[in-house]
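Protein 1 of 2
SEQ + STRUCT:
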Amino acid sequence: MDQELLLKAQFLQQQAQEIEQNLEIIIQEIENLQKMYEDIDFLMKSKEKSTISTIGKGLHLKTQIESKELFVEVGSGVVVKKSPEEAKKVIENQIKKLTEAKTHMSGKLEIYHKTLESVINDIQNKEKEENKKVKN
């Protein structure tokens, strides 16, 4: 059996698995952002003066809503005030960028799968040739 083809197939499989894992992370992040967008939309329309706020994983606190302005972390621990509309635009941009990355990675994954399929076919064809030689 051709070791070079086997190593190539193994490499392609590992790369495909890595891309699949990254795609799952991107898809989860898009879902989280869409949920956040919906939550901001709900906040904008709500007339409620109190709510339950999440302050950590599985930890919530009843809070009074004094203002609908949001505090958005923009990186390195820096927090800025944004209106709900501004925050929604930021989220829309993040979703757009992640969707583009998802599309790019999906295309790359498809290429890896097709190449892997081709290498597997090559391996199978070589095995058939070797079996014919052994029989003769």
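Protein 2 of 2
SEQ + STRUCT:
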Amino acid sequence: MNKYFFDLVNPQSSNYDFRGGEFPSPERAFQLAELIALDLGIEADRKWSGWTIKVRNIHGQQLFSAPVPELDLASA
């Protein structure tokens, strides 16, 4: 198992994940990043619009990023 960190960033601010989580593969960490981004994208107040989930490894290297989608819930 490897440890991955999920930072929430936009051009003006960053929320760093200092705890991280262990996953059996990088693909699983990326899947969680996508799920987090989708979850934030459906919030009614859209406060996460323009943010991105950036996945880092234990050495601080960015491996993936998943943008928070701007979902149009009115047309759903």
